[in-house]
User: Fold these one by one.
Assistant:
Number 1:
Amino acid sequence: IASVMLQKQAADAIINSNVHINHNKELTNSNFNIYAISKDDAKLVLNNNAHILNGMHQSNAFQKTKGLNLSPNAKIITQPNLFIDEYDVKASHSVAVGSINQDDLFYLMSRGLKKEDSEKLIVMGFINPVITNIDDETFINNSSISEVVLPSGVESIGSKAFANSGLKKLI
């Protein structure tokens, strides 16, 4: 499962995401990756849960959460939980939440990009692992992702995302 969550709202706007993955059979696998972006005064609360029941040997449960706060008041709260009732399993979780790296921003701006376009390009790179696996062009082109992350001149998040952006030469 791969997911991108975007939140851009007022201070009282909160999105609570609760994901529960239950391993009810032996030899099962789950791999859950979530990429969260929070902007303005928005708050995201991410509860990711995987449960491997007793007797479900040789099952695997992996969770990865990455968060990007785009403004000082934006918040992403993550709660990765692994409930393991079996010994013969592999399970892990990881979380990384931060803001745009100022060195990356400086690098892109030193190449002639405006600050806003540089930030949007960095955000596109952040969510690229999920976006590149979406095959539904109708969903991609009509989603709110484009309002939040696409540099000016870019009309699509799909494979032609950089075609008319003027950013193609940098990649």
Note: The longest helix spans residues 115-131.
Number 2:
Amino acid sequence: TANGKIDKTVYLSNYSGDKITVLDSVQANQNGEFQFKMQQKYKPGIYKIALGKCLKDQFYNTSGEDNFVKIIYNYENVEFRTWVVAPLDSMRIISSVENKIYFEFLLNDKKTNEQFEILQHLPTFFPKTDELYSSIKKRYANLQKENQNYLITLLKNYPKTYAVHIAKAIS
């Protein structure tokens, strides 16, 4: 289910290298609910579901990039709820272990990268002798360790999942 101004037709695509191929389309009802029936021939992997126009295009009534979600298909049912205007930040996985792991990883990765980005530039504002300089450097190193430990925990707890293999490849 996708809330917000969802397009009536929702598209399912897959990735093969840089190529994206539309596999199927379904009609969403007025509540934003839709359902794809995954065919036997669909292999485990990341699939893209195009939901509708991004917020900027909705506001200016222009065509442009669709907002979409990427889900993992690994022969399990996937049920989710999200908002079209912010699909990643609002994603709630209702059923699918693979996707719960995947989206938890994506949100953690986003948050961690935002913190790295901020911490990376802060030391330039302080002399090396300043207490804040060393505190920022220490926090940066601790954040790296925390992120590494998070990935190790994912690998340990879910070693055979497709989601962890993706997380490992991204990190």
Note: The chain has a mean pLDDT of 87.
